[in-house]
Specification:
Layout (H helix, E strand, L loop, with lengths): L5 E3 L9 H10 L4 E4 L5 E4 L4 H21 L2 E5 L4 E2 L5 E2 L3 E5 H5 L3 H5 L8 E6 L5 H12 L6 E6 L4 E5 L6 E4 L3 E3 L8 E3 L5
Parallel strand pairs: 8-9
Antiparallel strand pairs: 1-3, 2-3, 4-7, 5-6, 7-8, 9-10, 10-11, 12-13
Length: 194
């Protein structure tokens, strides 16, 4: 059964600041919460165990590469980022170059950092519709700093690759996906993702 995210609309007369939204998320830690660019709060259903395992595998592969490479840092799906549109998003896995991350103040790094990751991965779970995930990746693409995004559609065994100023590339049932020039030497082994 597909379960849609719950959308909570906030009256325009009561906008929530970034600080208030961060506090709201902290007191509701057991929920997966994002805020879109129109200020609506989106509460996503938890993933199933199988999807959570696949998401962990993706993050683990990215983290191992990042630790060896040393040019950036990785973030898990529970990390929120504030985009220039005002949206607060949490990709399933992401990576930021060290020089961009280190340019943020310690206070900015402790909360939802006002930065778009260089690289994002979104994994379609059984409860996800494809269109909202595609729109989410397009939102990252409009941000300064974004260089590469992967939307992994397990249901159809496809990987959509997003790069700035380029057409979306679709790989059918790949064994691996390469990090290109953005993540040199990184290749995601898809055998444990499918």
């Amino acid at each position: 059964m597909l379960s849609s995210p719950l959308v909570v609309r906030i009256p325009p007369s009561m906008p929530m600041t970034d600080e208030q939204f961060f506090e709201f998320c902290q007191i509701n830690r057991n929920l997966r919460i994002e805020r879109n660019k129109t200020g609506e709060i989106v509460i996503m259903p938890p993933t199933g165990s199988e999807t959570g395992n696949r998401e962990g595998n993706i993050f683990g592969q990215l983290w191992l590469w990042s630790e060896q490479d040393g040019t950036g840092i990785t973030f898990s799906s529970s990390t929120g980022f504030i985009l220039s549109t005002g949206a607060e998003r949490s990709p399933d896995a992401s990576w930021i170059k060290l020089e961009r991350w280190n340019a943020l103040s310690p206070e900015q790094q402790q909360k939802f950092a006002p930065i778009c990751p260089d690289f994002v991965i979104e994994l379609r779970s059984a409860s996800d519709n494809l269109k909202p995930l595609q729109e989410k990746i397009l939102e990252y693409m409009s941000e300064a700093g974004f260089q590469l995004g992967w939307l992994i559609d397990r249901k159809n065994r496809k990987v959509y690759i997003y790069r700035p100023s380029q057409e979306v590339e679709c790989l059918d049932n790949p064994d691996t996906v390469s990090g290109d020039r953005v993540l040199p030497g990184f290749s995601l082994n898809m055998t444990k993702v499918w």
